[in-house]
Amino acid sequence: MTTHARPLVMGIVNVTPDSFSDGGKFVGLEAGLAHARRLIDDGADILDIGGESTRPGAEPVSEADEIARVVPLIEAIRSESPIPISIDTMKPAVARAAARAGATIWNDVTALGFAPDAPAMAAELGCEVVLMHMQGEPRSMQSAPTYDEVVGEVLAFLAGRAGAAMAAGVAREKIWLDPGIGFGKTVEHNLALLAALPLFVDTGFPVLLGASRKRFIQGLDPLAAEATARLGGSLAAALAGARAGVAAVRVHDVRETVQAVTVDQAIYRSSVAL
What we know:
The protein is built from ten helices and eight strands.
């Protein structure tokens, strides 16, 4: 499926000391704000702020520490830019604090499953909610991920979580789906999900694709051991998402991704005009 509308580009701002790609680089308000400004200048449509790493093997962060990391940054960004802000957290209290600071999207790797009150909190906040699939939890999710049929199982899980969110009062039009590339999946699982992106788009929910710098790229290119060496694979995944019709791509390399999807869109428009 080819689409003529480019996906929104969500720029990643990790204010954590241990993220897999840029851990420690943007810890602290000034560093985080400078990075956010740079991503806005590079063309980001949305900023995704995270205060707890969800990389394989990551250790949990306390609620208070996470709030202390993200809220001042969200407030600072909001004071100088109207750009939509997403809070990347599994904790309802962090989502609430972030929403009060100016975030309008809750990006949850547990699909509102971390705490019993998460769906109700999402409904109360009235924000957009990204429901992501993850097998297991960050500390152990990559130990031995297994599925009978990965695409069908991920689709069924996300449909169930969307149903639970709506039952709690979240409006259907505010729900996004994310197949969770790299979260409890092998290289083969990730490739199957990327190939099946049109099926996720066909659910009618907007789809967020987060494949930027993920380790499956190294599985296909052994020279990409460092996360920063995975730009080519990240762009390939973003273009696959664009052609499948995803609503947004979550990326580290905003300028390069904006350029890639813009050129891809221009090629599509030219082909239609022939």
